[in-house]
Amino acid sequence: MTRRYVILLLGFAVFAAVFARLVEGRYPWPTPSKTPGAIPNVSDSTPASTGPIIYYRDPDGRPAYSFTPKKTSAGKDYLPVRASEDVSFGDKPPPVAAASGQRRVRFYRNPMGLPDTSPVPKKDSMGMDYIPVYEDESEDSSTVTISPGKLQKTGVRSEPVERQTLSVPVRATGRIEFDPRRISIVSLRFEGFIESVEKFVEGDYVRKGQVLMRIYGPNVSSAAAEYVAVLKTRRGEAIEAAGIESARLRLRNLGLDDNAIAEIARARSVPHHILWRAPQDGHIFERTALNGMRAAPGDALFRIVDHSVVWVLADIAERDISLVAPGQKVDVRPRAYPDRTFKGKVALIYPHLNIETRTGRVRIELANPDGLLRGDMYAEVEIAAGGNEKALTVPESAVIDTGKRQVAIVDKGDGRFEPREVKIGRRGEGFVEIKSGVNENERVVTAANFLIDAESNLKAALRALDQGEAGK
Predict the structure, then answer these.
(1) Of 257, 281, 299, which one is at a domain's C-terminal end?
(2) Among 17, 297, 304, 370, which residue carries the largest CB count within 10 Å?
(3) DSSP of 261-315, one letter per residue?
(4) What is the tally of structural domains in the chain?
């Protein structure tokens, strides 16, 4: 009984050893021999799996893996995955070529960027192939070469460097005010009495030349009497012309317009009152004149404002002052009309800053033909800064900004990329101005450029490590 039991144990041990070697791939599984004339099986065209077992995968196709043999909850064995079946992210390292005309591998580096190299092909703990580093890569240390397969997987995209007009919008808030050059004050230059005022009140619109009020003034009557007397006196032509012009000038100095003086000359009599007319078109912003009141010289009886053009005073941040210049176009959106945009332009940049808010004031002239814009309204202002000059630009996503330096990845074609340090300028509309570093019509990477930059940094670190080991 004991002898039979020993024989059974030895047989089981031999079977287990053979099975283990078969699992490890040291012995091929027996395959049926092909007979001449037999119909070829579809499975005959599939290459046999070779190499050692790397890991085990779920038999039902679920994303579950194991480094050791394992069973599912249903009792199914995990399927072994051999080296030839493994699909890694990186390309398979080609064998070291000894023949002339082929690239020679210097060493293999860790695919995850760890400081680990190997003189022969190998895999890391996750089953990923080490990446080969070729001898000719040291000839162009600034270029990173990426295989087409990896480019497709990482989604690398590039766009050309173009020269175009770069608009940099500067946004601020502003307040609408009247243009003081379009405001007129109606006052007297003499002491007079207002006999009557026309039915104009604050807010009414008047035209230039419309009668506002009737004025009586002793000084005006005296000057008018002198003018009439000169007109009626017959003297020499030279003396008469000089006297008429002197009397007319005195009336004009009292504030009478040409129409009032012509009316006195036509009537050849001293008027009882003078018709005082509006000096310009506009709205009556203020009225203090009343029937029968006494008006002293300089009293503001009417204030007339022309609203056809208004100002917008906007306060912009100190850092944006250099971007703004007179003549630039401006979009103004009053808060009272959020769905409307009024077009204007920058007229003046004030020469001083607000020390408390650190802002600079900009004056914007704005047409107001419909009279919708009113004084003291708040508005959102957007200045199209940048001018009309074209600049070298790239998409914002093409620039890797680390704070201390800016890098752009230049696509040199055939999977070759070169990181370059660039100097940037203005930003706007999704583009950034490039002052130096790249040239027009070159292509820069706009997607997955961080991966290429990391690859370049890793390559530089490995090169420095390799040079350090060679110097020992």
Answers:
(1) 299
(2) 304
(3) HHHHHHHTS--SSEEEE-SSSEEEEEE---TT-EE-TT---EEEE--SEEEEEEE
(4) 4
With beta carbons less than 8 A apart as the criterion, state whether 109 and 116 touch.
yes
Give residue 396's pLDDT band: very low, low, confident or very high (50, 70, 90). Answer: confident
Q: Give the best-scoring range by mean pLDDT among 3-7, 130-134, 341-345.
A: 341-345
C-alpha 48/C-alpha 29 separation (Å) is 10
Residues 117, 95 share a domain: yes
Position with higher pLDDT, 90 vs 225:
225
Other C-beta atoms closer than 10 Å to the C-beta of 257 total 16
Per-residue pLDDT tens digits for 35-81 = 444 444 434 444 566 667 777 888 887 767 677 888 888 888 888 87
Q: Which two tokens stand for residue 330?
A: 């401006």
The kind and range of the H/E element at 275 are: strand 274-277
Residue 447 CB contacts under 8 Å (≥ 6 apart), including other chains: 155, 156, 157, 397
Burial (CB < 10 A; 0-12, 13-18, 19+), residue 388, is: exposed
Residue 380 and residue 425 in one domain: no
pLDDT recorded at residue 189: 93
CA 88 – CA 127 distance, rounded (Å): 8
Please tell me whether residue 232 adopts helix, strand or coil conformation: helix
pTM for this one?
A: 0.53
Domain of residue 113 covers: 87-139
Return d(Cα 294, Cα 193) in angstroms, integer: 5
